[in-house]
Automatic annotation (TrEMBL):
InterPro entries reported in the protein's UniProt record: Arsenite_MeTrfase-like (IPR026669), Methyltranfer_dom (IPR025714), SAM-dependent_MTases_sf (IPR029063)
GO MF entry, a single one: arsenite methyltransferase activity
Matching SUPFAM superfamilies: S-adenosyl-L-methionine-dependent methyltransferases
Catalyses which reaction(s): arsenic triglutathione + 2 [thioredoxin]-dithiol + 2 S-adenosyl-L-methionine + H2O = dimethylarsinous acid + 2 [thioredoxin]-disulfide + 3 glutathione + 2 S-adenosyl-L-homocysteine + 2 H(+); arsenic triglutathione + [thioredoxin]-dithiol + S-adenosyl-L-methionine + 2 H2O = methylarsonous acid + [thioredoxin]-disulfide + 3 glutathione + S-adenosyl-L-homocysteine + H(+); arsenic triglutathione + 3 [thioredoxin]-dithiol + 3 S-adenosyl-L-methionine = trimethylarsine + 3 [thioredoxin]-disulfide + 3 glutathione + 3 S-adenosyl-L-homocysteine + 3 H(+)
Coiled coil start-end: none
Family indicated by similarity: Belongs to the methyltransferase superfamily. Arsenite methyltransferase family.
Entry GO CC: cytosol
Pfam family, one: Methyltransf_31
Protein name as annotated: Arsenite methyltransferase
UniProt record, GO biological process: arsonoacetate metabolic process; toxin metabolic process
EC number(s) recorded for this UniProt protein: 2.1.1.137
Domain Methyltransferase: 65-218
Organism the protein comes from: Chiloscyllium punctatum (Brownbanded bambooshark)
This protein's record includes keyword Signal: no
Amino acid sequence: MGIHEDVKDYYGRRVQKTEDLVLNMCVTPAQPLPKYIRDVLNVVHEEVSSKYYGCGLVIPECLENCWILDLGSGSGRDCYMLSKLVGEQGHVTGIDMTQEQIQVAQKFIEYHTQLFGFSKPNVEFLQGYIEKLSDAGLKDNSFDIIISNCVINLSPDKKAVLKEAYRVLKDGGEMYFSDVYADCILPEAIRTHKVLWGECLGGALWWKDLFRIAEEVGFSAPRLATAKRIPVTNAELKKVVGDFQFVSATYRLFKIPASCPKDKCCVTYNGSIRGFKEKLKFDVNYTFNEGEAVTVDGEMAAILQGSRFARAFSIKPAGKVAPCSGEDPSTKSKVKADETYRGALGLCPH
Ligand SMILES: C[S@@+](CC[C@H](N)C(=O)[O-])C[C@H]1O[C@@H](n2cnc3c(N)ncnc32)[C@H](O)[C@@H]1O
């Protein structure tokens, strides 16, 4: 069987609920969940939640009215949470190749529509491959946000996945996704091990390859939101994995509009994003405090200017605004970003 068939077998038949996974990477998120997310998580139907196999939290900020696509949506837990958070005028599409997963997800559309008090469903589930979104009828420039939770590692063609994601995102759109990464390119013994592949380790990208592929496809450089080490506790799997290290990381990639200049800017957050009145932690380098002017690098300025975050910031050319702290926090904290990542991975320097 090919990789797709093996993975369908793993998530369609072999694994029936979260506890059936050999590794328990789904259990603890890298950061405590904010209350508004806990509230919505707690009301998702139990059968849907019991088949959750993700490795991170894929709920970005600023979601009202957004159109969202979930790559490898499984039983639909993240889609239902997002369905509530985007509101009735927003929309969520989940795509997954495994029929058994899609069936569970579809079974609870009406339940959640009523629970959230919507007059009609704002969520749909399609059966299809994330490497070929066009076969599922997904059009160019049609989504504000793409999320994905522990899926891209399972794909035999990661570049095709990112290319398709880039195509269907609108200009200014964001891909916000959690996945598993390795500290090196993995050897064949790990890559061809069916349980390790099914458990999301065998197909893990070397994290530097993600940066390369993202650039080749046209995305902004990946911005690390969170990272957490994945310990391989199972003795049998540990023997095969040896000293290789794995991390579950959440990255944000943006499709920056060509019209956005990439000039250093002075930006001030206005505190208007739900749940983040006082501060917005954008990634490991940038935390924006309400009302505080800070200088940001050219790419960050283009991201803020060209995306759904534009309405939450005042953005002015750097050097022309007082008071601006003058110093780009990322120049101070780039080291910190590296340390965060290496700390999570326990990496040797490459
Ligand atoms: C580890 S589970 C995660 C499911 C879901 N994101 C969650 O958090 O519960 C991986 C899911 O990705 C789906 N999947 C893996 N490779 C895929 C591909 N190439 N195309 C579509 N779906 C895929 C599997 O069918 C499975 O449902």
